[in-house]
C-alpha cells in the first residue's frame, strides 16, 4: 500500500496545505499547538523524503517515483512529477532546512508567528515543487509562486530597510524569470509539449539556442546569483529574519544551479558551449572579486552573503567548465563538484545564518565591531561556529572542501589559469572566514553585554549540531552523495555533449 | 415571412422583465428598493438560465442574418450576465447609504446587459451599432447617477462626449464600409473583401472602426477618458464599467474583425500592434506614480487592455480564445478590485489613497489577503488566474511569430509588477495609525468571496475555462 502512495505529491501538497490551514487557522491564540502541528507535519515530510532516498535506485538515470496527471490538456501542460539524482539531494535538503527553521528560528520572531510558520511551509512546498516538476510550466508556477511567501517574509519580519530589500529581491527575480517564461512558451509551442524531457530532446537552431540560452541565463544567474546581478542578495540577506536568510541561502540560491543543470546544459548544449568562456570568467570574478568584497564587510550577514556569492561561483564554474574539458571523467568530476558544492553550501550557509541569528537574538546587532571575546561566555557556540567557519573556508574533512576541490582539479585539466584563479578562494575564503571568526569570537570581551551572554540553549544547540554532523559526514564520506547523482550526471553529460544542430 | 422568435427568448425575456420591473419600481413604496433589487437579480439569473438551456452547439444566422447565435455569443452572454450580477452584489451596499439609491440604478444595469447581449449577437453593422448604443447610453446614465457629486457629473460629461465621438467615428467608418461594399452584413463584407482587393476607402473606414474600438476599450492613444471616468464615477459603477462591458466589447471586436474584416488582417493587425504596445507602455508607466487607488486601477486597466489586444491581433481563432480568456480573467479581477474598494469604504466615505490601506494586513487579515491575491493576480503571478491569461496571450503572439512583441510584453509586466507590489507592500508592511475593524454586509462578503475564490481556483485549474474559450471560436 505504501508503494502506491503519491509520495512526491505529498512532498509538495502536505506543506502547502498545512501552510494554508495555519494561515486560515486560529492565529496566535493557539500558537503552541499550531507550531507543534507544523513541526509534526514537517517531520513527516522529512521522513517521506528520507524514505524516497532509501527507495531510490542508484543504478539508473531514469526519473523515479513518477506521477503523471492531466492538468491543462488543451495546451499539453501536465501535472508531472519525478525525481532523479540531481533533484533528490536538494529535496532532502529542503525538507531538512524546513524542519530546522520551524524548530530553530520561530522563537526569534516576535509577532504574527503563525503567519511566519505558514510562510515557511508554503515556501517549502513550492521549493519541493520546483525540484520535482517534470513539466516546464509546472516548474515555472512553483518557481514564481515561491517568491510571494519570501517577499512577505522579508517585508514583514525583516530589518529596518526591509521594504527596499524585499522589493529589490522580488523585482530582480521576476525580471529574470519572465524571460525564461517566454523562452519556455516558445519551446513548448515548437515541441508541442511542455514537458522538460521534450524540451531537452527537441532540435533547436543556433539562433534559437542563443536567445533561449540568454533567457535562461538571466533567470538562473539572478537566482544563483552570479556577478554582476548579485546585488539583491546582500540586501535581502541583511534585512531578512534569520529563518528567511537560512531558506534563501540554503535552498533558494540552489534553484539557480539546478536550473543550469536541468535547462541550460541539456536544452541549449551548443549555446552553452559557445558562451561557456563568458560564464567561466564571470564565475572567476565572483570567486575572486566577491571574495575580496567579503573581506571588507562590516556586517556579519553581509559577509556571509558575499561569501555565498563566491561559493556559488564554484557551482557555475563547475557547470560550465565542462565545455573546455576533453575527457568524460573530468567533466563528470566538475559536475559532481558543482552538485556537492550546492549541498554543502546549503548546509554551511544555513548553519552560519543560524549562528548569526543566535548572536543577533542576544545582542540585536550584526556589526562585527560590536562583538569580540564571545568565546568567554559562549564556549559551546564558539566551538560549533568554528566548525562552520572552517567548512566555509573549505578545510579538508568538511563538506566545503569536497566541492571546491573537485571543481579546481577538473578545471586544471581545462586550463591552468582557470584553476589558478579558482584556487585563490582557498586564500580568500580562509581570510574572510577566519578573520571574521577572530574578530567576533576571540580577543577581549568587547563590552559588558558580551560578558553576560548566555550560551546556546538546547533548541539552538540541537539545530546547530544536526548541521555540524551533516557537514562532517559529507566531508568525510561524500561518496554517498556522489553515488546518488552519478547516473544522472552521466546522462546529463550525454545530453549536453550531443549537438542539437543539423540532423 | 414568419419568424421563430424562440431564438431571441433571452433578449425578449430580459426586455420584458426590465419593463415590468420599471413599473413595479414606480409603484413600490419601499425606500430601500429591496424588491427592485431582488427582481433585477432574479431576472438576470433567469436570463442566464434561458441562455444555458438554449445554448447553441452550432452557428445560426437568423433573422435575415442580422442576428448570429453561436457558442461564442452564448458564452459571452452568460459570462456578462454573471458579471453583472456580481457587480450588483457590490453595488447594493454601496448605493444604499449614498443618495444614488433609485430603482433606475438596477434597471440601467438590466438595459446595459440587454445591449451587450444584442451586441455580441450582431450579424450586421446595424445590429452591432444598435447593441453598442443601448449599452453605452445605459452606462452614461449609470456614471451620471450621483447627481450631487460634481466629480461624478464631470466624469459623466467626459464619458458621454468621448463615447459620442467614438460612436461618431464608428458610424462614419461603417458608412464608408457600406459605401464601398454595398453590404451591411458581416458575412457579405467578408465575401466582398475576399473577392475584391480592399480599396483605400474601405481601409479608411476600417481605421475609423478601429479608432472607435480603441475608444471603447480605452486603449492608448484613446485612453484619456479612462482615469477620469473611473475615478469620478461611483465606485460600484466603475466596478461594472470595467468588467462586463469590456467582455461584450470584445465580442463586438471579434464580430467586426474576425467575421467581417478577416480578409483585411494585415490592415488592422498593424493598428492593433501599435495600440497594444502603447497601452502596455503608457498604462504601466503612468500607473507607477499613482497614489489614488481608482486611478491606479484605471491605468492598470489601460495596461491590461494592451495585453488583451496581444491575443486578438493575431487574427487566429486561437488568438481570439486567448484574448477571451484574458478579458474574462481581467473582468473578474477588476470587479474584485473595485469590490475591495467598496469593502474598504467607511459609511459614505470612499477609500481614495493608497495610504489608507496601511496596516490593513494587520487590522483586517482577510481583507488584506483578498486584495493582495487580486493584485498579485493582476500582476500575472502564479498560481493565480492572471498568470494563465498572460501565458495564453504570450503563446498566441509567439504562435503568430511576433517574438519581439512577447518580449516587449514581458518587459512591461516587470514594470507592472512594481505598482502591484507597492499595494501589497502598503497593506502588509506599513503600520497603520489607527486600527479599526471593517464590517461588511453579507452580500459584499459573498461577492468578494466569489471573485477571489475564482481567481485562486481558476489559477489552480484553468484547464476547463481555457477549453471553453477555445470552444467559443470554433466557428471562425
UniProtKB/TrEMBL annotation, chain A:
Predominant subcellular localization, coarse grouping: membrane
Mode of membrane association: Multi-pass membrane protein
One Pfam assignment: Proton_antipo_M
Domain spans labelled NADH:quinone oxidoreductase/Mrp antiporter transmembrane: 133-425
Gene Ontology terms, MF aspect: NADH dehydrogenase (ubiquinone) activity; NADH dehydrogenase activity; ubiquinone binding
GO BP annotations, alphabetical order: ATP synthesis coupled electron transport; electron transport coupled proton transport
Entry keywords, A to Z: Membrane, Transmembrane, Transmembrane helix
Statement: the UniProt record of this protein carries the keyword Transmembrane: yes
Cellular component GO terms, alphabetical: endomembrane system; membrane
Keyword Repeat: no
Location of the protein in the cell: Endomembrane system; Membrane
Transmembrane intervals: 6-25, 37-57, 77-102, 114-131, 137-157, 169-187, 211-233, 245-263, 275-296, 303-326, 338-359, 371-396, 416-437, 462-482
Family in the record: Belongs to the complex I subunit 4 family.
Protein's recorded name: NADH-quinone oxidoreductase subunit M
Native organism: Kangiella spongicola
The organism's taxonomic lineage, starting at the top: Bacteria, Pseudomonadati, Pseudomonadota, Gammaproteobacteria, Kangiellales
Automatic annotation (TrEMBL), chain B:
Localization, UniProt: Cell membrane; Endomembrane system; Membrane
Pfam family, one: Proton_antipo_M
Main location, first listed in the record: membrane
Role summary: NDH-1 shuttles electrons from NADH, via FMN and iron-sulfur (Fe-S) centers, to quinones in the respiratory chain. The immediate electron acceptor for the enzyme in this species is believed to be ubiquinone. Couples the redox reaction to proton translocation (for every two electrons transferred, four hydrogen ions are translocated across the cytoplasmic membrane), and thus conserves the redox energy in a proton gradient.
Upper classification of the organism: Bacteria, Pseudomonadati, Pseudomonadota, Gammaproteobacteria, Kangiellales
Enzyme class, UniProt record, top EC level: translocase
Quaternary state and interactors: NDH-1 is composed of 14 different subunits. Subunits NuoA, H, J, K, L, M, N constitute the membrane sector of the complex.
Keyword Protein transport listed: no
Transmembrane segments: 6-27, 39-60, 72-91, 157-180, 200-226, 271-289, 296-314, 320-345, 366-389, 401-421, 442-461
Organism per entry: Kangiella spongicola
Domain of life: Bacteria
Name the record gives this protein: NADH-quinone oxidoreductase subunit N
The gene coding this protein: nuoN
Amino acid at each position: 500500500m505504501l508503494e502506491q502512495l503519491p509520495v512526491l505529491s505529498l512532498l509538495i501538497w502536505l506543506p502547502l496545505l498545512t501552510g494554508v490551514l495555519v494561515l486560515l487557522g486560529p492565529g496566535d491564540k493557539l500558537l503552541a499547538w499550531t507550531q507543534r502541528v507544523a513541526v509534526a507535519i514537517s517531520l513527516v515530510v522529512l521522513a517521506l523524503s528520507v524514505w524516497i532516498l532509501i527507495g531510490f535506485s542508484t543504478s539508473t538515470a531514469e526519473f523515479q517515483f513518477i506521477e503523471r496527471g492531466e492538468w491543462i490538456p488543451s495546451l499539453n501542460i501536465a501535472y508531472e512529477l519525478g525525481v532523479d539524482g540531481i533533484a533528490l539531494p536538494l529535496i532532502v535538503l529542503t525538507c531538512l532546512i524546513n524542519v530546522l527553521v520551524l524548530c530553530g528560528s520561530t522563537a526569534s520572531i516576535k509577532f504574527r508567528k503563525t503567519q511566519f510558520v505558514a510562510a515557511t511551509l508554503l515556501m517549502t512546498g513550492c521549493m519541493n515543487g520546483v525540484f520535482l516538476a517534470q513539466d516546464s510550466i509546472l516548474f515555472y508556477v512553483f518557481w514564481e509562486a515561491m517568491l510571494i511567501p519570501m517577499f512577505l517574509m522579508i517585508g514583514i519580519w525583516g530589518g529596518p530597510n526591509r521594504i527596499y530589500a524585499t522589493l529589490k529581491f522580488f523585482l530582480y527575480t521576476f525580471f529574470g524569470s519572465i524571460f525564461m517564461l517566454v523562452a519556455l512558451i516558445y519551446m513548448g509551442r515548437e515541441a508541442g509539449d511542455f514537458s522538460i524531457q521534450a524540451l531537452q530532446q527537441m532540435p533547436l537552431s543556433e539562433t534559437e539556442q542563443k536567445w533561449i540560452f540568454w533567457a535562461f541565463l538571466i533567470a538562473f544567474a539572478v537566482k544563483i546569483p552570479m556577478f554582476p546581478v548579485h546585488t539583491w542578495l546582500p540586501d535581502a540577506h541583511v534585512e531578512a529574519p534569520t529563518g528567511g536568510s537560512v531558506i534563501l541561502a540554503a535552498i533558494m540560491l540552489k534553484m539557480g544551479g539546478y536550473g543550469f543543470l536541468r535547462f541550460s546544459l541539456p536544452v541549449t548544449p551548443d549555446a552553452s558551449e559557445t558562451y561557456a568562456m563568458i560564464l567561466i570568467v564571470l564565475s572567476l570574478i565572483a570567486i575572486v572579486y566577491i571574495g575580496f568584497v567579503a573581506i571588507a564587510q562590516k556586517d556579519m550577514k553581509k559577509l556571509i552573503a558575499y561569501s555565498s556569492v563566491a561559493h556559488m561561483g564554484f557551482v557555475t564554474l563547475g557547470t560550465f567548465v565542462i565545455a573546455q574539458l576533453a575527457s568524460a571523467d573530468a567533466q563528470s568530476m566538475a559536475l559532481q563538484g558543482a552538485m556537492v558544492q550546492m549541498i554543502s553550501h546549503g548546509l554551511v550557509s544555513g548553519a552560519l545564518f543560524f549562528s548569526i541569528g543566535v548572536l543577533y537574538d542576544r545582542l540585536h546587532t550584526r556589526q562585527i565591531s560590536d562583538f569580540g571575546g564571545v568565546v568567554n561566555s559562549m564556549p559551546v557556540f564558539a566551538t560549533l561556529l568554528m566548525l562552520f567557519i572552517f567548512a566555509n573556508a573549505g578545510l579538508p574533512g568538511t563538506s566545503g572542501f569536497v566541492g571546491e576541490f573537485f571543481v579546481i582539479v577538473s578545471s586544471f585539466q581545462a586550463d591552468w589559469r582557470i584553476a589558478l584563479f579558482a584556487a585563490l578562494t582557498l586564500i580568500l575564503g580562509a581570510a574572510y572566514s577566519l578573520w571574521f571568526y577572530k574578530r567576533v569570537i576571540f580577543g577581549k570581551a568587547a563590552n559588558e553585554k558580551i560578558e553576560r551572554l548566555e550560551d546556546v540553549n538546547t533548541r539552538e544547540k540541537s539545530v546547530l549540531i544536526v548541521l555540524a554532523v551533516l557537514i562532517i559526514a559529507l566531508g568525510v564520506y561524500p561518496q554517498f552523495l556522489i553515488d546518488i547523482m552519478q547516473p544522472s550526471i552521466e546522462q546529463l553529460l550525454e545530453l549536453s555533449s550531443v549537438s542539437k544542430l543539423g540532423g | 415571412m414568419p419568424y421563430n422568435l424562440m431564438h431571441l427568448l433571452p433578449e425578449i425575456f430580459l426586455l420584458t422583465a426590465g419593463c415590468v420591473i420599471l413599473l413595479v419600481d414606480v409603484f413600490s413604496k419601499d425606500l430601500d428598493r429591496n424588491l427592485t433589487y431582488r427582481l433585477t437579480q432574479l431576472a438576470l439569473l433567469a436570463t442566464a438560465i434561458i441562455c444555458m438551456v438554449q445554448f447553441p452547439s452550432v452557428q445560426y444566422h437568423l433573422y435575415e442574418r442580422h442576428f448570429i447565435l453561436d457558442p461564442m455569443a452564448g458564452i459571452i452572454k452568460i459570462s456578462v450576465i454573471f458579471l453583472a450580477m456580481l457587480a450588483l452584489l457590490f453595488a447594493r451596499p454601496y448605493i444604499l447609504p449614498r443618495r444614488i439609491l433609485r430603482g433606475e440604478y438596477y434597471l440601467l444595469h438590466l438595459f446595459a446587459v440587454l445591449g451587450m447581449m444584442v451586441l455580441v449577437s450582431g450579424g450586421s453593422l446595424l445590429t452591432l451599432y444598435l447593441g453598442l448604443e443601448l449599452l453605452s447610453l445605459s452606462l452614461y446614465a449609470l456614471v451620471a447617477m450621483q447627481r450631487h457629486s460634481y466629480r461624478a457629473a464631470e466624469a459623466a460629461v467626459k464619458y458621454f462626449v468621448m463615447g459620442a465621438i467614438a460612436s461618431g467615428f464608428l458610424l462614419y467608418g461603417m458608412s464608408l464600409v457600406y459605401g464601398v461594399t454595398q453590404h451591411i452584413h458581416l458575412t457579405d463584407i467578408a465575401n466582398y473583401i475576399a473577392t475584391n482587393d480592399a480599396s483605400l476607402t474601405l481601409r479608411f473606414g476600417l481605421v475609423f472602426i478601429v479608432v472607435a474600438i480603441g475608444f471603447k476599450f480605452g486603449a492608448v492613444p484613446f485612453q484619456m477618458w479612462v482615469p477620469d471616468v473611473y475615478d469620478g464615477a461611483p465606485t460600484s459603477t466603475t466596478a461594472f464599467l470595467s468588467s462586463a462591458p469590456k467582455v461584450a466589447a470584445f465580442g463586438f471586436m471579434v464580430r467586426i474583425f474576425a467575421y467581417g474584416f478577416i480578409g483585411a488582417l494585415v490592415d488592422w493587425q498593424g493598428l492593433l500592434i501599435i495600440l497594444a504596445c502603447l497601452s502596455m507602455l503608457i498604462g504601466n508607466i503612468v500607473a507607477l506614480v499613482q497614489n489614488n487607488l481608482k486611478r491606479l486601477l484605471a491605468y492598470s486597466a489601460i495596461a491590461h487592455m494592451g495585453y488583451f489586444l496581444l491575443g486578438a491581433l493575431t487574427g487566429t481563432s486561437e488568438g481570439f480564445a486567448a484574448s477571451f480568456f484574458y478579458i474574462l480573467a481581467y473582468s473578474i479581477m477588476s470587479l474584485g478590485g473595485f469590490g475591495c474598494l467598496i469593502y474598504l469604504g467607511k459609511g459614505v466615505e470612499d477609500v481614495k489613497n493608497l495610504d489608507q490601506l496601511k496596516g490593513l494586513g494587520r487590522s483586517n487579515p482577510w481583507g488584506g489577503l483578498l486584495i493582495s491575491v487580486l493584485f498579485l493576480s493582476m500582476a500575472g503571478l502564479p498560481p493565480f488566474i492572471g498568470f494563465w491569461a498572460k501565458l495564453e496571450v504570450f503563446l498566441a503572439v509567439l504562435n503568430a511569430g511576433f517574438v519581439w512583441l512577447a518580449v516587449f510584453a514581458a518587459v512591461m509586466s516587470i514594470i507592472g509588477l512594481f505598482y502591484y507590489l507597492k499595494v501589497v507592500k502598503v497593506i502588509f508592511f506599513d503600520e497603520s495609525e489607527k486600527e479599526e475593524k471593517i464590517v461588511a454586509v453579507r452580500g459584499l462578503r459573498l461577492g468578494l468571496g466569489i471573485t477571489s475564490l475564482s481567481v485562486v481556483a481558476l489559477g489552480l485549474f484553468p484547464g476547463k475555462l481555457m477549453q471553453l474559450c477555445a470552444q467559443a471560436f470554433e466557428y471562425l
